[in-house]
Structure formats: C-alpha cells, structure tokens
Amino acid sequence: MKRPSFAFKLKRRLQRQAVNTRQNLTFILIGFALSLLGIGLVMGGEFLVDGEFYRELVALAGVIIIGTGCLLAIIGYLSMSLLKIFYVITRDDEDK
Prior knowledge:
The chain is an all-alpha fold. The chain is built from three helices and no strands.
C-alpha cells in the first residue's frame, strides 16, 4: 500500500485548517487580547514598578507577550483569508 506523500499530507492539513473558522477566529481574538495585555504591561510597568532594572524586565515581558499575540493573530488571519482561497482552489481540482 502506497503511503501519502508529504505534499498530500500538508495539503490536507491546510484544507482542514481553512474550514475550521471557529479556531481561526479564536486565534485572532486571543492574539488581540495578548497584545493588549502586553501593551498594558509595558505602559503599567513604566509607572507602577520601582527600580529601573525591574521596570525593564516588566517591559521586556510585555514586548514578548505582544510578539506572541501578534503571531497568533497573524496565524488566525492568514488561516481565515489565504487558506480559504487555497481551499477553494484545491477543492476545484479534486471535483474535476
């Protein structure tokens, strides 16, 4: 029995991700919330934390959280938009 190729497995995985709208929207919303939390840490740490070293550590944690949130939001957005187009194009090939 022939095993499916890596390209076939990747295509199937991307198609499944494209139609999973609830998960993609969840990625966008969690990314947005993490970004807001990170911005709050950066801004709040500037005024609420004593000591320059600790202030910078809080700001660094905030920047890392902002980056994580942006990455999640980008993954969700690309899954909802580009993968949906990919899904439509590749499903048309299979119907012929």
